[in-house]
Amino acid sequence: MYDLVASLVSGLLVGAIYGLAAIGLTLIFGVMKVINLAHGAMIALGMFLLYFLVAVVGLHPYLSLLPVLIVGFAAGVMTYWIAVNRVIDSSDLMSLLATFAVNMILVGAGTALWTTSPYNVDFNLPGLSWHGYTIPGAQIVAALIAILIAAALYGFLYHSRTGKAVRAVASNRQAAALMGIPTRRILAIAFGLGIAVAGTSGALIATLFPFTILSGSSYELKSFVVTVLGGLGNPAGALLGGILLGLIEGGVAPFVDVSWTPVIEFTLFVLILLAFPNGLFRVGKGG
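The chain above was modelled as a monomer; its predicted structure follows.
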């Protein structure tokens, strides 16, 4: 019984980080209807940037999150202008190919620089003990930071002038342009925010688990599952979907081999997609 409870608590905490990762994916889709296939590579780059800042520069892992956010935003804006802007009004296939090409470039460059050997950030925090089980302190803090970043993004989108412009462009780009909103600049900002959040989620994951340049792909797949649970284009739903996915992982972990976890996740992905096309946490047609 205690094994199950401890696993559920761990899944809940890690699920908050899954939700943060998925927010980056669903924000980009919600604003510009682009499925970002470079999402996993950006998560991995966030992991390696944190590793560099901690191991080489000597920063504390949590102090390193601000530079990761800033660099992630800059990388996202640059990626938008180089790879996405030219195809934003083309077919969906063009944007998929563009972001897939960025993904392959980043993974190839990362493999050449760092190989596929695992890296680890040497960092621990005192945990909380309960009936002989200890919940790692790093998991607790990482989950709290993920929730705080998600809340800050929500506040930005709903209570700032630029955030309201992002929502206006997401709702109706043509009408927003007629109202004088610089839509291309707003799209670049939205893409930058999505990548910044993805990179930061990778940095938080790096404080918990070993990683390689290929690690981002598994978290990208989890992000797709989470966005289906929460509803595409719904950041708040993505956070809830990530927590739900973490609870599911925690609930099955004591009973099945870890290799079955992706099978269970993607079975859930298909079932939710068929039964609730708009996601569990989004009201709409078919939901």
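The radius of gyration is 19 Å.
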